[in-house]
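User: I've been trying to design a sequence by hand for this structure and keep getting stuck. Would you show me what you'd pick, starting by listing the structure so we're on the same page?

Assistant: Good idea, let's start from the same input. This is the structure you sent:
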């Protein structure tokens, strides 16, 4: 397993352990909110950009973009997007203090600029998704994809 996939899996497990969205946290799924649930999270790898080491055989630094989709299904009398907004807030609170994160991770921070994107389901007005983009800065050994 590459370090990138291990980091995404660790993020999923971290959010799951915090019981965000009732612990319904997926990894690399395409848009899924079960019909019997009112919230869910999907952690998805988006892309990685490397910076080669200046010293031969040195560690490669990566900025890996991870997208965390926060789903919510609102009740009839609720404001559209309110449940997804609650899930989003819980994700941000959880990742605000990502100290002790493993796999060579140096920092987890919101992507500057295009951090959040809202999407409202056209067929089901009660469903909304807010995608939060985070940059995970980490290092691998030499020119490998391993820690």
């Amino acid at each position: 397993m590459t370090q990138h996939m291990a980091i995404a899996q660790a993020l999923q497990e971290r959010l799951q352990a915090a019981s965000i969205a009732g612990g319904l946290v997926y990894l690399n799924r395409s848009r899924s909110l079960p019909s019997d649930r009112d919230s869910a999270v999907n952690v998805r790898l988006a892309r990685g950009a490397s910076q080669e080491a200046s010293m031969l055989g040195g560690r490669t630094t990566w900025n890996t973009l991870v997208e965390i989709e926060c789903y919510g299904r609102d009740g009839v009398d609720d404001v559209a997007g309110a449940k997804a907004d609650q899930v989003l807030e819980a994700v941000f609170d959880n990742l605000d203090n990502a100290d002790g994160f493993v796999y060579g991770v140096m920092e987890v921070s919101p992507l500057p600029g295009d951090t959040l994107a809202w999407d409202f389901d056209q067929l089901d007005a009660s469903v909304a998704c807010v995608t939060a983009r985070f940059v995970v800065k980490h290092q691998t050994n030499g020119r490998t994809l391993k820690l």
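That's my pick for every position. To get oriented when you compare it with your attempt: The first helix runs from residue 3 to 17. Strands lie at 25-27, 39-51, 60-73, 105-110, 116-120, 127-140.
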